[in-house]
Amino acid sequence: MSERSALERRIRAWLALFLVCLVLSGVTAFPLVTELRWANALVSNEWLQRVGDGLIRADAEYPFLLYGTDWLAFAHLVIAVFFYGVHRDPVRNIWIVEAGMVACAGIIPLALISAPVRGIPFWWSVIDMSFGVFGVIPLLILRRMIKRLEALSAGVPSTATPSTGPRATDTPSAKVPAPTPQARPQS
Predict the structure, then answer these.
(1) How far apart (Å, rounded) are the C-alpha atoms in residues 2 and 173?
(2) SS (H, E, C) the chain
(3) Of the residues 7, 118, 168, 177, which has the maximum number of CB atoms within 10 A of its CB?
(4) pLDDT recorded at residue 1
């Protein structure tokens, strides 16, 4: 197996790991009431009990409030779809990985600013911030591997792929002959 194909396989493996985590973190936002009932049955924690009670009450009296967490879950799934571009062409779509890194970094100021305003304990903010810290790790690894793939590809001529179609450099008609020097008349 060539170094290039081994690197592409590793990129896809790290991408799959990131996507599984992203989708799971999103999908778990749908059944919050059930999840908190389970958590409170397993762990005795005053904060979790308060959150569970609040969600149960909101679900019973104001179920439309939980619609916001449905959108949160949906947003995770939509973000995951964008990462398909990285699967198709990692070098060209490295910007998706970099945007994901920015989003992971943005979790920290959001948690530090919004949590106190909403009355969230600091230790819970640390848990929220850990999603950004742990989320950026596979993205940093992906970015490094994609940059390496780009360097490997730098000296290799482009080839057309079914997903991207032919490139201008792939067709003979795109090659313009170099101008030939014309002899100037001597005076």
Answers:
(1) 31
(2) CCHHHHHHHHHHHHHHHHHHHHHHHHHCCCCHHHHHHHHHHHCCCHHHHHHHHHHHHHHHHCHHHHHHHHHHHHHHHHHHHHCHHHHHCCCCCHHHHHHHHHHHHHHHHHHHHHHHHCCCCHHHHHHHHHHHHHHHHHHHHHHHHHHHHHHHHCCCCCCCECCCECCHHHCHHHCCCCCCCCCCCCC
(3) 7
(4) 75
**What are the tens digits of pLDDT across the range 144-186?**
999 999 999 886 554 434 444 444 444 444 455 555 556 555 6
Burial class from Cβ neighbours inside 10 Å (0-12, 13-18, 19+) for residue 79 reads middle
Count CB neighbours of 133 within 10 A: 13
End-to-end CA distance of the chain: 64
pLDDT tens track for 1-25: 799 999 999 999 999 999 999 999 9
Please tell me the distance from the alpha carbon of residue 145 to that of residue 140, in angstroms, as a whole number: 9
3-state secondary structure of 165: strand
